[in-house]
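User: My instructor asked us to take a sequence, write out its structure as tokens, and then describe one feature of it. I'm not sure where to start. Here is the sequence I was given:
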Amino acid sequence: MEINDTDKKILEILMQNGRTSYSDIGKELNLSRNVVRDRVQQLMEKGVIEKISAVVNAEAVGKKVSAFFEVDCEPADLVKVAEKLAKNPSVASCDQMTGPSTLHMHVLVEDFSSLEFFINNELYGIEGISRVESHILLRRFKSRSGLKL
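Assistant: Let's start with the prediction itself. The structure tokens for your sequence are:
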């Protein structure tokens, strides 16, 4: 789907605040509420907008430790390992990557004892994992959800 300038402006507004009403978007772009609604619906139907959701501050809900993992898997076990990790509620994201590690994973937990439990009991126990490297986040300088247009 080709995205025109009006669609890009609508997307930029929604990425800043997904709760912006169609009427407010219309006022800002000099469009009717119905035109905005129809364009947003088309963007959703075409898969440009995957979903509109809230971005929750992990620390504010008790997830104070953020860690990133590089996980190597045996090729035959990759999908099974990734699907098992993706079901774990502590795993915020799990992606197959190129490079020296097979999976890149972001984990959010309450504290360091929860991280230790995750590593020892939930990660190391998965068959097919050959190597795990972890990195603990100290400070975030930039965070962005979604695509910048």
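For the description part of your assignment, you could build on this observation: The longest strand covers residues 65-73. Try explaining in your own words what that tells you about the chain.
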